[in-house]
Design brief:
heterodimer, A: 114 residues, mainly beta, seven-stranded mixed sheet, four-stranded antiparallel sheet, B: 109 residues, six-stranded mixed sheet, five-stranded antiparallel sheet, 11 strands
């Protein structure tokens, strides 16, 4: 039973490029959450999605960041025109329908912006 | 004031010792409480949920004091493998988890 999968595990981008981070939830899970962890800081909530719906994006920066969770395929976190301050670990978590408390985390994508 | 506050440590304790971490949260309407463990450059992993009556899992004991908005984690007979960062996590009832910055623990042989 595969856990939450994220790819790539490491991503290097130059300033101004786009970064696409993918998350495949655990089998049977329909809720996906994205969190960001800056160096030496705690995880911060970004966005909560269900299939084809953004439920809560209160933690997303207003510009350059977007997220989707299509009917088929993984959830995507997209960062346009990356800046150095976007360098962080981005974790995805998933939970099963009706059990919102239990979130299982993927291994994260470490983004480095040069 | 941060929504979830923890002593960042580091805590350096000898193997076999007992160590306790504390955490305070700001929202009295908070619904669910957890301790997660995060190893260096790894994802957070659920250690245990925290219930009002207090709960124990082997060497780990978690307690919740709603009146004081305070959560604790006690580790008895600490092992080298307990070295990690311990994250206090609160669900304020809005589907998203709010994390403390973590307490770093190092067990010394």
């Amino acid at each position: 039973n595969a856990g939450v999968m994220q790819n790539p595990r490491h991503l290097v981008r130059r300033r101004g490029q786009e970064a696409r981070l993918r998350c495949s939830p655990m089998k049977g899970h329909s809720h996906v959450y994205w969190y960001r962890q800056l160096p030496e800081e705690g995880l911060k909530f970004m966005v909560y999605l269900q299939k084809e719906n953004i439920i809560d994006e209160s933690g997303m920066p207003k510009e350059r960041f977007s997220a989707e969770f299509p009917k088929e395929g993984p959830s995507i976190l997209r960062i346009q025109q990356v800046v150095r301050g976007d360098s962080a670990a981005y974790f995805c978590a998933s939970s099963p329908l009706g059990r919102r408390e239990t979130q299982y985390f993927g291994p994260g994508t470490r983004l480095l912006v040069l | 004031r941060k929504e979830v506050e923890q002593d960042p440590g580091p805590f350096n304790v000898p193997e076999g010792a007992t160590v306790a971490f504390n955490c305070t949260y700001s929202n009295s309407a908070s619904q669910s409480f957890f301790w997660y463990r995060q190893d260096c450059r790894k994802e957070p992993k659920l250690l245990m949920s925290v219930y009002s009556s207090g709960n124990e899992d082997g060497r780990f004991t978690a307690q919740l004091n709603r009146a004081s908005q305070y959560i604790s984690l006690l580790i008895r007979d600490s092992k080298l493998s307990d070295s990690a960062t311990y994250l206090c996590v609160v669900d304020f009832g809005n589907e998203k988890l709010t994390f403390g910055t973590g307490t770093r623990l190092t067990i010394i042989p």
